[in-house]
Amino acid sequence: MGMVTDPGYEPVIGLEIHAQLRTRTKLFCGCLADFGAAPNTRLCPVCMGLPGALPTLNRQAVALAVRAALGLGCRIGARSVFTRKHYFYPDLPKGYQITQGDFPLGTDGTVHLAAGMDSSVLERVIRVERLHLEEDTGKSVHHAEYGLVDLNRAGIPLIEIVTLPDLRSSQEASDCLGEIRNVLMRLEVCDGNMEEGSLRCDVNISVRKSSGELGSRVEVKNLNSFRFIRRAIGYEQARQAEILRSGGQVQPETRGWNEREGKTYTLRSKVSSNDYRMVDEPDLLPLDLSRDWVRKQQAQLPELPYQTRKRYASLGLSRDMVITLHSQKWLMDLFDEVMELGLEPSGIANFLATEVLRDAGQGAPIRAWQVGELMGLVAEGTISGKQMKELYGWVKSTDESPRQVAVERGLRCVADESTVFLVCERVVTSNAQMVHKYRQGKKGLMGYFMAEVMKQTQGSADPRVATAILQRMLEEEQV
Fold first, then answer.
1. Domain assignment of residue 121, given as a range
2. For position 425, which CATH number holds?
3. Are residues 149 and 270 in the same domain?
4. pTM
5. pLDDT tens, position by position, 200-251
6. Kindly report the CA angle at 225 between 222 and 227, in degrees rounded to 5?
């Protein structure tokens, strides 16, 4: 559509995130909750909504939902109530969805969102209004002349996480979803697989004049990638701003996202809660959770992503490095394991981020003890930094000892001053013009001379020895 957003209009964004819980069976029956089965093969009278079939609540789903709510800082309600939400759609076999209405499982939570790279603040807080349990619907498959329904997903256990409209850009919304996804995966509550539908997001967006009253809210449904979220919000922000600029009114409605055309489209007009005829589920008792049980769940929580970021920052690591290490769980685990060996944090982080991360697939290509040996060889002056990279290439994806391989391959750092002196002397005398520039004040050329020394020694010169000799040679004849 090629719209240009009016800078006078500010987007106001909230998210509704649906996350599938990692249970073996569905929320109210014993059907398997696995992905990829043949259509309509994971069904029973309960999830098909047949007359007389009664739901039985999945205990594991409750435990995982509480764990997620606690991980997002929610207050756990002493009593939560299941509700029937009525609407008609072909993939909703009962004609209603069992969810939680006025009494959800968790309320008043927080998402500790890592601030953007251009910010001096490590994080800011986005408020979570509520987290509740509900069952998924089936799936409609549309063809040109007909439609099909697969009910395998009907009854799959979900949590819905609703944020308040605290987000102010498409990137911030994408980052917020990413942080929630990280929390749920850290807690092992959800696998976070957006391609398989384990994590889906609806976006509520309105625009307003900066700091003015909230505008009419439009909901964009079922976005299952970070890119789709950013593009859909950007389009909708521009569309609404253009309507307001031309004197029109934004209509509250539910819209879909067409990725191929790069635009949203109308699905239906916005309905109110009254349209759903919400009533308490008569076949399920209210969910009463003891305070002691909730406290035990709280005590079992692992370190959360924002807590990891704070811990890494306290080690003196840069913002960029903190966020890089935080990007993958295996990378964090490897960093923490190497740290237990007593090595210097920034050196470990730089090696993992520059060398190890680019070789990784789904996990670490090297073990913590191997990293410790590599860095120990450099620290004691046995090999140079360049040789460490070469040695890493030999031992990665193996169980071999870097120290033993260094001996077998004859790797050693040349620290003998007389040997390094001759190389430095040769480099300085053959680069008179560069020496002159250095002595005229271009001290950054030290890197050039060091590179030449390393090239002529095939990376084996001790950098500390070479640097000291070069500095003496380059400074001694100055007037």
1. 9-297
2. 1.10.10
3. yes
4. 0.82
5. 999 999 999 876 778 889 999 989 999 999 999 999 999 999 999 999 999 9
6. 120
Cβ atoms of 205 and 236 closer than 8 Å: yes
One domain for residues 276 and 189: yes
Neighbours of 179 (CB within 10 A): 20
Question: Residue type for 297, please?
Answer: Q
CA 416 to chain centre: 48
Q: Does 321 reside within a domain?
A: no
Same domain, 291 and 382: no
The span from the first CA to the last CA of the chain, in angstroms, equals: 67
Tell me the average pLDDT across 151-173: 96
